[in-house]
Amino acid sequence: MSTLDEVGTRDGWRCWLCDEPVDPDASVNSDRGPSVDGGAVAKKGKKGGASGVERLAHRACNTRKGAVTPVVAWSPDLFVVDPAPIVATVERLSRKGGREVVARCPSRSDADAASAWLLDRLSRFAPDLDVTTSVDAGGGQFLLVLRAG
How many domains does the chain have? Predict the structure, then answer.
């Protein structure tokens, strides 16, 4: 098990759930204080079941996640239509690899912005998952595709 400082430094002191900064000096008893979530994302290829990856979270985000399925929201600054749920997509790709269409965008520039954001977000959310994105034109829109493996 890693220490809070090790996990926080590795994750850039950002909450894996809300992607907001976590103050390393805040009290661990504060809602916005740091905590380590020990079962955030399944790792690919582990025999005998998936093991969790330690992730940094705000204490309140970590507590709330324990009561409901975690949701990692897409940025409201992106213009995406029908975005796939990030947590479920990462779990599926971690287990079996492959590719999934994760969003549709009305323009190439919107798709490129969503692609850059998603890769950056996944670098913190699922750092052990080797993913790439591509943008495919089709039907008057642009599809954002996430590939793993």
Answer: 2
